[in-house]
From TrEMBL:
This is Piso0_001092 protein. GO terms for cellular component: exocyst. GO terms for molecular function: SNARE binding. InterPro entries: EXOC3/Sec6 (IPR010326), EXOC3/Sec6_C (IPR042532). Belongs to the SEC6 family. The gene is Piso0_001092. It comes from Pichia sorbitophila (strain ATCC MYA-4447 / BCRC 22081 / CBS 7064 / NBRC 10061 / NRRL Y-12695) (Hybrid yeast). It holds the Pfam family Sec6. Keywords: Exocytosis, Transport. GO terms for biological process: exocyst localization; exocytosis.
Length: 839
């Protein structure tokens, strides 16, 4: 049983109750089987009948084929009997030849006697037709086919006489020459008429005179066919003196007349003459020719779409006309290039070269949807009016000129930028910058805010991008992706050179600022922790304390923070514009083979710009920290503890002084920095500030004026945890308003690095509790926290020795390793304690 049948039975019998249906199902299956057998039997009988019918027809065809073979044999037999049995067969054939010869002589006599009148008749027809077509482009050439017929008869007769005379005496040849010589004048007249028709064919078709085109094609096609017959007969030696005496000379052609070649030659002459007139019109400024070739392009479109389809495809009229104009344009362009034109003229030539190439591709591919059309378009794409080799040289020469000009401009710009940044005579410029902020609402749901804030930028900060746009747009007009890519790549190199120049300027100006305003000199004298404040960069030996404000200003002029911020804003805005506007704009203007180079050129500027902005932010952070050093130097010292003695004192605590200084800087900074620069600077500042706070506290306890932490101290002004808590509360309360709701979470998480110190410094059983705090609190908050953080706080405890500390630190290192192996890094990493160290 088949699978289909089993499947059907399984579908019908699913439950026990279905078993009662077995009898009825059996009857149903029997009926279906009977029906199927009946249909199968009928189909089988039909197929058998068809096979028998075909066999019968095959037998009938075989019989008829044998009958045909028999009849052919009879015909062959009758022919043999007739030709062999007739004794007079050769006589009959010779009599027939003689009769044909006499008839030929009679016709020759008649045509020779009337040849002069016949040629005059043809000449009159030609003159009348020429006058009509030369005066009216819409004239449908009413008599051209009639003229061509009569002329062909006359020329066939003339050819026949000339070939026949080759076997005659010199006297007879002279007579024949006198008869045929007038034919040359008639032929010349007809060629002039045909030339006028050829040069008028395009304008006639534009005027709707399709009859002229069709009649011209008919004549040329007839001439081509007859020339082909003539060539074949000559190669097969089918023309000899014997056959000439009896053939119909009205159909005789002694040699090729080559009217197809005549057509192409006259058409080419006409096209060249038209182009030459255009050149003559702009003889005083030949570069204007490239701006006025619309007529040629319109002509090529008309030929491609209207004229060429009227002609046989094998004639390639379209390609022929395109090639004629291309050759004229190429020769004209080469003549101009030989005169060594300026770069502007070369660019105009390149621009039209690209335009011409795109025009031809669009012309061919616009109406050719097949593969052949695509091949034609690809072939035209490779054609340049100046030639591929010379085009490369011209492109290289033009790029060299652009590169030299751009490098000169960039050098002058860098000098001016350095002067403006160093002198800082006026505040930076203000620019309205549209920014998008991501924040959270009161329900901690993400929201997006769009603001137009006024930010500081450097004077003429748009100049580099304006220069790029100016040069790139000119390159785009040239139509050559290689020029655009070369311009963008060179601009990118100049842009990076300016960034490097700014990095050097920033470094020099920051060193000048620190040489005058650094608090390290004072702190080295006042603090025992001298190692904290020694900068690696060499400092000039200046007597700052005895210098006047004017003298100090001459070393480092005011406004460094504002100009640093303007520099950071400038490169942030320009980077955004390059990536969001310039990159997609110019990528879309070149072939895909150039797009990766353009993208790489713009991407090459991103990393240096980011590095410059990082340097700017680092300098701003260091300047703020520099002002905080006097207050931070009190961390974990006796006076720091005693700040909690009295809450009624008018004197600010260390943490309050710090908050006041930070707020003053950041409130002003927020008024002229972009949101990204501001938030990034504040976040990195928090990391530096908090790690510096902890580091200075450790140094003060271990090496300076601070005292060891007594975990058992309970008095408020002696409790380390109470003092830590006081600072954390002041820092968060004083700085929270400077953050968005979303960013305030970073402030809170960063301050936990200080908050943990209260528990780490005062907990009982530190050998057991600190590893737990490290594992459960510190590492989850500061994933990459250095174990030096633990070593430092333990070194500050009065109740721990070096052996305990080393043991505890090793344990913490193992915990950190296991934690990293089992727990992936969080999405947002707090970098406060990354690479933390102390001396």
């Amino acid at each position: 049983m088949s699978d289909a049948a089993l499947s059907k039975i399984a579908h019908l019998i699913k439950l026990e109750d279905d078993l009662v249906k077995v009898s009825s199902l059996k009857q149903q299956f029997l009926k279906e089987k009977t029906s199927v057998d009946g249909r199968l039997n009928t189909t089988t009988q039909t197929q058998i009948s068809s096979i028998m019918s075909n066999i019968s027809k095959l037998n009938e065809s075989s019989t008829k084929l044998n009958l045909v073979k028999t009849n052919i044999g009879k015909i062959d037999q009758i022919f043999e009997e007739l030709t062999s049995s007739s004794a007079d067969y050769d006589i009959i054939r010779k009599m027939t030849d003689v009769s044909k010869f006499f008839t030929q002589v009679q016709h020759l006599y008649r045509d020779i006697s009337k040849s002069k009148q016949y040629l005059e008749f043809i000449n009159n027809l030609i003159d009348e037709e020429y006058e009509n077509i030369s005066q009216d482009i819409s004239y449908p050439l009413t008599n051209i086919l009639r003229i061509h017929y009569h002329l062909t008869q006359a020329r066939n007769f003339s050819d026949y006489l000339e070939v026949l005379s080759e076997t005659l005496s010199d006297d007879l040849r002279s007579i024949v020459s006198k008869i045929t010589s007038p034919m040359k004048k008639t032929i010349k007249k007809f060629d002039s008429l045909l030339n006028e028709i050829i040069i008028s064919v395009t304008e006639a078709l534009k005027d709707g005179n399709t009859e002229l085109v069709f009649k011209l094609i008919k004549i040329l096609d007839f001439e081509y066919t007859e020339d082909l017959k003539c060539t074949l007969m000559s190669k097969l030696n089918l023309i000899d003196a014997k056959r000439l005496k009896s053939i119909d000379y009205s159909l005789f052609r002694g040699k090729r007349r080559n009217y197809i070649k005549f057509f192409y030659d006259k058409l080419e002459e006409s096209l060249k003459e038209t182009f030459d007139k255009c050149i003559e019109h702009f003889a005083e400024d030949k570069m204007l020719v490239y701006d006025n070739l619309n007529w040629m392009e319109d002509e090529l479109v008309f030929v491609h779409e209207t004229l060429a389809p009227q002609f046989p495809e094998t004639w390639n009229i379209d390609n022929f006309i395109q090639d004629v104009y291309y050759n004229k344009l190429h020769n004209f362009t080469m003549d101009i290039i030989k005169t060594d034109p300026p770069a502007e003229d070369l660019l105009r030539i390149l621009s039209y070269d690209s335009h011409y190439s795109k025009f031809m591709i669009a012309l061919l591919s616009g109406s050719e949807n097949d593969a052949d059309g695509e091949k034609k378009a690809a072939k035209k794409e490779q054609k340049s009016i100046i030639g591929e080799e010379l085009k490369k040289v011209v492109l290289e020469d033009y790029l060299k000129v652009i590169v030299i000009k751009m490098e000169e401009w960039n050098s002058n710009l860098m000098n001016e930028e350095k002067r403006i940044f160093v002198e800082r005579d006026a505040p930076p410029d203000i620019y309205t910058y549209h920014q998008i902020l991501e924040d959270e609402d009161a329900q901690d749901q993400p929201i997006t805010l769009e603001i137009d804030g006024e930010v500081y930028v450097l004077p003429d900060f748009k100049t580099p991008l304006s220069m790029l746009k100016e040069q790139a747009d000119v390159a785009v007009e040239s139509g050559y992706g290689s020029i655009l890519v070369g311009v963008i790549e060179n601009w990118s190199r100049c842009y990076i050179e300016r960034i490097l120049n700014y990095k050097q300027i920033v470094e020099e100006e920051f060193d000048k600022y620190m040489s005058v305003y650094s608090n390290e000199r004072f702190l080295i004298k006042e603090s025992k922790a001298k190692r904290l404040f020694r900068r690696q960069a060499p400092q000039p030996d200046l007597d700052v304390e005895n210098m006047s404000p004017e003298e100090l200003s001459s070393i480092s002029r005011p406004g460094l923070v504002e100009y640093l911020t303007a520099l950071g804003n400038t490169y942030e805005i320009n980077t955004d514009r390059l990536q969001d506007k310039f990159l997609p704009n110019y990528k879309n203007k070149v072939h895909t083979s150039f797009q990766s180079r353009i993208q790489l050129s713009f991407e090459d500027t991103v990393s240096p710009s980011t590095e410059l902005n990082a340097m700017v932010i680092r300098c701003i952070i260091d300047i703020i920290l520099n002002d905080l050093y006097p207050a931070l130097s009190l961390a974990f010292t006796k006076s720091w503890y005693e700040e909690g003695k009295s809450q009624t004192s008018d004197e600010l605590t260390m943490s309050q002084r710090i908050v006041e200084t930070i707020s003053e800087y950041m409130q002003e900074f927020r008024s002229y920095a972009s949101y990204d620069i501001y938030s990034c600077t504040f976040a990195l500042f928090l990391d530096s500030f908090i790690s510096t706070y902890i580091r200075l506290g450790y140094e003060n306890v271990i090496h300076g004026d601070g005292k060891k932490i007594d975990p058992k101290a309970v008095k408020k002004f002696k409790s380390f945890s109470e003092s830590i808590g006081r600072d954390v509360t002041t820092f968060y309360g004083g700085l929270e308003h400077l953050f968005t709701r979303k960013d305030s979470a970073y402030l809170l998480n960063s301050l936990r690095a200080i908050e943990f110190l209260g528990d780490l410094g005062t907990c009982e059983e530190p050998m057991n509790v600190i590893p737990q705090i490290w594992s459960n609190e510190v590492l989850p908050s500061f994933y990459f926290c250095s174990v030096e953080y633990i070593r430092g706080i333990c070194s500050c405890r009065k109740d721990m020795d070096k052996t305990q500390i080393n043991t505890l630190v090793r344990e913490c290192e193992n915990i950190k390793k296991e934690y990293h192996e089992s727990t992936p890094p969080p999405t947002t990493i707090i970098g406060t304690l990354n690479e933390f160290y102390y001396n």
